[in-house]
Amino acid sequence: MRKMFRAACILLSCLLLAGCGQTGKSIEKYRDAGIEALNAGDPAKAVEEFTHALDYYGTSKPGFMETDIRRYLAEALMRSGDYAAADARYQELLADDGRKNEYLDLCAVCIVKAGGDLYEALALYEEADGNGASGDAHMRAMFTLGEAMSASGNEELKEKARELYDRAAAEHGMTAELAVRLGNMSFQSGDYQGALDIFDEGLALSDAALGAESVTEEKAAEIAETRRALLYNSAVCQEYLGDYAAALAGMEAVASEYGTTEEMDHEIAFLRTRVDGGT
């Protein structure tokens, strides 16, 4: 009887181990498929795969692999544009895996993109900032939050956005991306010369970045888009300052390098009448 019981226990153990092994393989299969879909630019498919992987887990405290999959799922939801669902996932990660800067920053982004409370998003960003956060996620949170606060119509939040940008420039140095936003704020306040100075500083930085040997093709495309905005905004400042020749030259440079629009064509035609009329 004892031998039969022992044999049954061994058999049960083997079955359990085999089941765990098969479950682990299934989880790994779905996880790998999700990562592959993300890399292929199909976040909706990635969401499906990561969700399938998580279906194998119970309600116990998440282990390393489950937490890793949940992070991928949150990222996939963000990339698919489902910011409310991504926010919920990052909130879970904050509760279960600690208040890590990456979670705080990306949660702030999701709240803003989902049309949530800007003060809540700002509190998360500032918590990460107080923890010494840096890197792409923190910069993304700052720009996303800053742009939303600037456009909110709330003067207190607009001032907070300016503080975020000024602090970033003071602590880490001016960048072309910061120059676009700080210049726009100066322009909106009526300080056209101050805005022009900031845009010109940003242009110098973008030109230097494009000339760096280490710049990747993807990064170069991002810098070029920022440079286009700086060139255009600089020309607008010149127009407001009454230097129509410089404004025209700037607009024509944008059109030549980046293409034109119907609105820009009208602006160039208007500036030509001003320049021709002044000669």
Structure description:
- By secondary structure, the protein is mostly helical.
- It has a domain of 105 residues: Tetratricopeptide repeat domain (Serine Threonine Protein Phosphatase 5, Tetratricopeptide repeat).
- Helices cover 82% and strands 0% of the residues.
- It is built from 13 helices and no strands.
- Helix 10 runs antiparallel to helix 11.
Short key terms for the protein model shown above:
279 residues; mainly alpha; Serine Threonine Protein Phosphatase 5, Tetratricopeptide repeat; 13 helices; disordered N terminus
Radius of gyration from CA coordinates: 26 Å
Cα(first) to Cα(last) distance is 112 Å
SSE pattern, N- to C-terminal? HHHHHHHHHHHHH
Q: How much helicity do the residues have?
A: over 70%
Silhouette? elongated
Using DSSP, what is the number of strands? 0
Would you state the CATH class of the domain at 175-279?
A: Mainly Alpha
Strand content: under 5%
Low-confidence stretches: 1-19
State mean pLDDT (0 to 100 scale): 88
Give me the CATH superfamily of the domain at 175-279. Answer: Tetratricopeptide repeat domain
- Which class of secondary structure composition applies to the elements? mainly alpha
Please write out the topology.
Elements: H1 2-39, H2 43-54, H3 64-80, H4 83-97, H5 101-113, H6 118-130, H7 136-150, H8 155-172, H9 176-188, H10 192-210, H11 217-240, H12 244-258, H13 262-277
Helix pairs in contact: 1-2, 1-3, 2-3, 3-4, 4-5, 5-6, 5-7, 6-7, 7-8, 8-9, 9-10, 9-11, 10-11, 11-12, 12-13
